[in-house]
Structure formats: structure tokens, C-alpha cells
Amino acid sequence: MPRRGVCGMTIGGKIREARSQAGFTDEEQFADKMGITVATLRAWEANIETPSDEQLERLVEATGADPAALSHLARAAAP
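-> C-alpha cells emitted (79 positions)
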């Protein structure tokens, strides 16, 4: 079961929300912008994998998401 942050959201849910709010409804377009595969994006959003710090930085740049929230959720997801 994925670990949830204080707000009850998982890192995957926050990534999905940030992508959607930034207007990236197409997974392939967003994955290309991030320099990752669609499979990696899906793994993040399904809480199977967690983005690296560098990938989180690119995610913030691409979506305008709150970097503190993403970092907190990524740490909560770490084994």
C-alpha cells in the first residue's frame, strides 16, 4: 500500500494532479517533456516507482507544482 503524506495524498496522486492542472492531459506529451517514458510516468502515478530528486525538479519546472509538497511526498514514499 502506498504511503500517504499528511494531506492523505500519495506522490503518484500529486504527480497526476500537477500534470493535469498544468494542462498535460496527454501522457506521451508530458513524458517527452520530462525526458522519461510513458511507462515510467505510469509507474510514478501508480506509486510503483518514485522520481529521483532531479526528476522532481524537472516536474516542478514543467508543472509549477509545489516543490516542498512533492519532496515531502517523495520522502514519505521512500522505503
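The chain has five helices and no strands.
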